[in-house]
């Protein structure tokens, strides 16, 4: 078996966060293959802290409706604190990808109602037919969350290889108490994010842009 670096780079380059899905379900065998591959992600002490609840069919529809209703009510209470701020280059990158999205869907700068409408799409799961809710044992703390970050990337890439589009969503995890309740996830686990997934609506403008990446000179501090 040979996967060339170019093959791998092409897989990474093809993946993007999908913000409009077709309704067709992903076959259970394909989802199982994605999870089977994603679980190969490394974790500290091989704890494999990730667990996911995966919704399909009517369960996705019930969850979508309840999440939407919760989002109307508000009550932001994530299990792990959201970033306290984005400054400097992080603020710039955050703004750039936000503007790229708003530009793609025709929301003009300053159109707060339009940007809020687009943001609320998070709570419709962007129309995805499936949602995975990812949690980690509370006792593993930030390192459990770190391991789960690797799982998110592995899941997204395994899905991409199977022609399945994904979007990780911290926005969904902002309603952690509701999610604990709805899915019966104990308080001994931290809900980290959702991953909505399915087949991309490739004609939708929300899927028409690609984010940028910093050059290696901004990432690596070479020594020696
Ligand atoms: C942990 C995590 C949480 C994210 N949460 C959201 C979210 O709530 N809503 C959203 O639209 N995108 C979310 N994203 C997607 C990022 O905005 C996206 O990965 C980033 O802009 C890079 O774009 P790309 O995934 O298309 O390469 C999240 C990504 C990650 C890794």
From TrEMBL:
Listed SUPFAM superfamilies: FMN-dependent nitroreductase-like (SSF55469)
This protein's record includes keyword Oxidoreductase: yes
InterPro entries listed in its UniProt record: Nitroreductase, Nitroreductase-like, Nitroreductase/BluB
GO MF terms, alphabetically ordered: oxidoreductase activity
Domain Nitroreductase: 13-199
Protein name as annotated: Nitroreductase
Keyword terms of this UniProt record: Flavoprotein, FMN, Oxidoreductase
Pfam families tied to this protein: Nitroreductase
């Amino acid at each position: 078996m040979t996967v060339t670096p170019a093959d791998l780079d092409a897989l990474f380059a093809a993946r993007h966060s999908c913000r409009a899905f077709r309704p067709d379900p992903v076959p259970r065998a394909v989802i199982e293959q994605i999870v089977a591959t994603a679980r190969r992600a490394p974790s500290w002490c091989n704890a494999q802290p990730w667990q996911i609840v995966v919704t399909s069919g009517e369960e996705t529809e019930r969850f979508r409706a309840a999440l939407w209703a919760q989002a109307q009510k508000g009550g932001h209470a994530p299990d792990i604190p959201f970033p306290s701020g984005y400054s400097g280059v992080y603020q710039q990158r955050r703004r750039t990808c936000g503007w790229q999205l708003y530009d793609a869907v025709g929301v003009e700068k300053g159109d707060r109602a339009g940007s809020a409408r687009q943001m609320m799409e998070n709570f419709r799961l962007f129309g995805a037919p499936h949602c995975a809710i990812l949690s980690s044992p509370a006792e593993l703390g930030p390192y459990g969350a770190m391991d789960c970050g690797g799982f998110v990337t592995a899941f997204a890439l395994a899905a991409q290889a199977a022609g399945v589009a994904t979007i990780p969503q911290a926005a969904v995890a902002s309603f952690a108490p509701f999610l604990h309740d709805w899915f019966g996830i104990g308080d001994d686990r931290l809900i980290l994010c959702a991953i909505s997934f399915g087949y991309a609506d490739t004609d939708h403008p929300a899927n028409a842009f690609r984010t940028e990446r910093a050059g290696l000179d901004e990432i690596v501090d070479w020594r020696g």
